[in-house]
Amino acid sequence: MEWIIRTLEEIKARDLYRELVELETPQGRLISVDGKKLINFSSNDYLGLAKEADPECFEKWGAGSGASRLICGNFKVHRELERRLAEVKKTEESLLFSTGYMANLGVISSLVGRGDLILSDSLNHASIIDGCRLSRADVKIYEHCSADHLEELLKKHRRDYRRCLIVTDSVFSMDGDIAPLDKLFELKEKYDAVLLIDDAHATGVVGWSSLELFGLEPDERTVIIGTLGKALGTFGAFACGTSLMREYLINRCRSFIYTTALPPSIACQTLKNLEKVPDRMERLSKLVKDFGKMLGVESRSAIFPFLVDSEEAAVLMSKALKERGFWVPAVRPPTVKQSRLRITVTANHTEEDLVSLSKVLTEIARSC
């Protein structure tokens, strides 16, 4: 096992070592780490719903599902949630998955295979990258958010393949920027392709769907992946599209077929959380605008990247923020190409939280 020791030593020497940090409190605005209360600016619990817990859901449905949905783990509350998710995403249907990673792996590898083409944004999430690899389709990477480069690749390669899938995050998790979905919509029609949009960091943040930003609605060439574990405050994921797509995935998607179903109590809690989304989304929008003004930047998402020159600087700034009462972990390669602090605003933050962080961040940046 010496090679493992050597690898870990190399990771530590490059300031890239990662450790699991134990939270001593539930997810929320305030968390406790190592006995210290900290204001949490790193969570994807954008609407502050993760602490919601309705006893009725667990009393009625229990803690587990007991089986895959095709055996005896398919509950009425699953279908209620799927219909509601399809409604807010403006699609015919949706299908629940146990995690967002499994949704991307399964859906991508089910829709395309050998003899097909995938065109993927260069900064797509790891689950998308792995789904592309698993599919065994030919993958071409287009420059980040570049519709022009995407079209160059389509012109050059589309005619050589049976099916074509364009895949992108809508809100990119580390930068907070948004894909040019209006242009991607045009290209999928022009080149006979399907567009898969990962709405993980968009749902409940920029609207019910990222497509709302562009005045668009999904059609039969659109597949939307979403997660329950971010703004919606629970756990799991879903794929939205046509009724035909849902039927196909139930019969062909391995990450749906061969796994234990999402606990029905989680589906129940998610339905209750969905009722609270509109008001909290409105509050989050205001806080995001206010924080952007404080930092002198503009963001349509709740993600604010603070880029630094080195891995060491990211670690030092994160430690300094912790000492001042803020939880903002350093994000380093291979998660990102350039190290940074990834700051996220949630609906549970106060204006005072934002003012305090912006001031401390400025002070620390000068000293580091």
Description of the molecule:
The chain has helices spanning 2-13, 55-61, 76-89, 100-111, 126-135, 147-157, 181-190, 243-252, 254-257, 264-274, 277-295, 311-323, 351-367; strands at residues 30-33, 36-40, 93-97, 117-121, 138-142, 164-169, 194-198, 222-227, 237-241, 303-307, 326-327, 330-331, 340-344. By secondary structure, it is an alpha/beta fold. The strands form three sheets. A seven-stranded mixed sheet has the order 3-9-8-7-6-4-5, sandwiched between helices. A three-stranded mixed sheet has the order 1-2-11. Helix 2 packs antiparallel against helix 10, helix 3 runs parallel beside helix 10 and helix 11 runs parallel beside helix 13. The protein is globular. The two termini are 37 Å apart. 45% of the residues are buried.
Please summarize what this structure is:
The protein is an alpha/beta fold and 368 residues long. The chain has 13 helices and 13 strands. The strands form three sheets. It has a seven-stranded mixed β-sheet, sandwiched between helices. A three-stranded mixed β-sheet has the order 1-2-11.
Q: What is the helix tally?
A: 13
**Strand neighbour order, sheet with most strands:** 3-9-8-7-6-4-5
Count of individual beta strands: 13
The main β sheet shows up as:
7 strands, mixed
CATH superfamily of the largest domain, please? Answer: Type I PLP-dependent aspartate aminotransferase-like (Major domain)
Mean pLDDT: 96
CATH class of the largest domain: Alpha Beta
What distance lies between the first and last C-alpha atoms, to the nearest angstrom?
A: 37 Å
Number of domains: 2
